[in-house]
Design goal:
Elements lengths: L8 E2 L2 H10 L2 H16 L3 E2 L2 H8 L6 H8 L14
Helix pairs in contact: 3-4
Length: 83
């Protein structure tokens, strides 16, 4: 990777949901705070559809509350097809 290239992870809903299965409840808050820092630095992108899927349930869990909470911090376009 050259100095001008940036590695960006595009996270989908299933990855955030799966995180709840592999990270203990005690450590989930720390993991999602770390993911938030990655959003702020531009290392993570979340398409609009992911935020919508995770947040449109009646009682959102940690990923469902986290995704819309970081929406304003995203450094990349919300639309997957946007260039």
């Amino acid at each position: 990777m050259s100095i001008d290239e940036v590695e960006v992870w595009i996270i989908d809903s299933s990855a955030l949901i799966h995180a709840k299965e592999i990270v203990s409840v005690k450590k989930q808050w720390d993991v999602f705070k770390h993911l938030e820092l990655m959003v702020i630095e531009g290392s993570i992108a979340l398409p609009r559809q992911v935020i919508k899927e995770l947040s449109e349930i009646a009682h959102p869990d940690l990923p469902g509350a986290w995704a819309p909470g970081v929406r304003g911090l995203l450094k990349h376009p919300l639309d997957a097809g946007h260039q």
